[in-house]
From TrEMBL:
Protein name, per record: Uncharacterized protein
């Protein structure tokens, strides 16, 4: 085996091909991408890396309407399955978006429960309270990925506070969505109606993560989990969501954080 084949064999065992694949898919939809984005881990007061930071903007200068969608992305490849643990308390398949506007606390949570715009979550889908890796004695891989998304999210929100005055004067909207992309078997584990363990293979999911790092006490931090084969479908869905949301903002220039009830967004799953 030549050096080229050996290098390809070695690199395919790492997570780098998944990052390259994800970047190529998002680039097709005109996302601007930063590899190895640096964020500040305020808990430990050190700088760390996020795998990918992707952004896309819609704007109309005359109307002073601007919409930015930011994707915080961690990529994990493994031959060992990932399990999303379900419980009976998580009934609804909801997702939350961090929204940045000109308000006292620039983060608001829109629960995706209505219309006119929808994020279509592709494939077989479940929500759960914990993500683990099967046949593994340590949860370090999952713990690191989840904490990276949570801490980079907090860092991003803090940076956005610098633009508070601009958001107050202009119709500027910034949405940030944390995403874990996996190249691995993915399953949901819970109890069936007979209280017996039941496992089902899925393609996407939402992890409702609890942590002392969450911005609001007793709140969950939602992380969208996407398998590799559904990355492009999800990218299309986010793009459609952005176009519909931007159209709504243009048609409703007075929309802001104080009248969130005028806009309802939901997760739709057709699987």
């Amino acid at each position: 085996m030549g050096i080229d084949e050996r290098l390809i064999e070695w690199i395919n065992k790492t997570g780098y091909p998944l990052e390259i694949f994800t970047e190529s898919v998002l680039s097709k939809y005109d996302y601007k991408i930063i590899n190895s984005e640096i964020y500040q881990d305020k808990e430990n007061n050190i700088s760390r890396e996020l795998d990918l930071f992707a952004s896309k903007s819609w704007d109309i200068e005359d109307f002073k309407v601007n919409l930015d969608i930011h994707l915080l992305i961690e990529c994990k490849k493994s031959t060992k399955p990932f399990l999303l643990l379900k419980n009976n308390s998580i009934k609804e398949e909801k997702l939350s978006l961090g929204e940045i506007y000109g308000s006292n606390d620039l983060l608001s949570m829109i629960f995706l429960t209505g219309s006119p715009t929808e994020i279509d979550v592709p494939g077989k889908f479940e929500s759960g309270f914990k993500l683990i890796q099967a046949f593994n004695t340590s949860d370090e891989t999952i713990h690191k990925a989840v904490n990276t998304l949570l801490k980079s999210f907090n860092h991003f929100i803090s940076k956005e506070k610098e633009y508070e005055d601009d958001y107050k004067t202009d119709n500027v909207h910034s949405i940030v969505l944390p995403i874990l992309i996996i190249d691995a078997p993915f399953y949901a584990l819970g109890l069936n109606k007979d209280s017996e363990l039941e496992i089902n293979e899925i393609e996407t999911g939402i992890l409702k993560h609890r942590s002392h790092l969450n911005r609001f006490e007793n709140d969950t931090f939602p992380i969208t989990i996407i398998t590799k084969n559904k990355v492009e479908d999800f990218a299309k869905s986010i793009n459609i969501f952005g176009e519909l949301f931007f159209k709504y903002l243009v048609e409703n220039p007075d929309y802001n954080i104080n009248n969130l009830q005028n806009l309802e967004i939901k997760v739709r799953n057709n699987a």
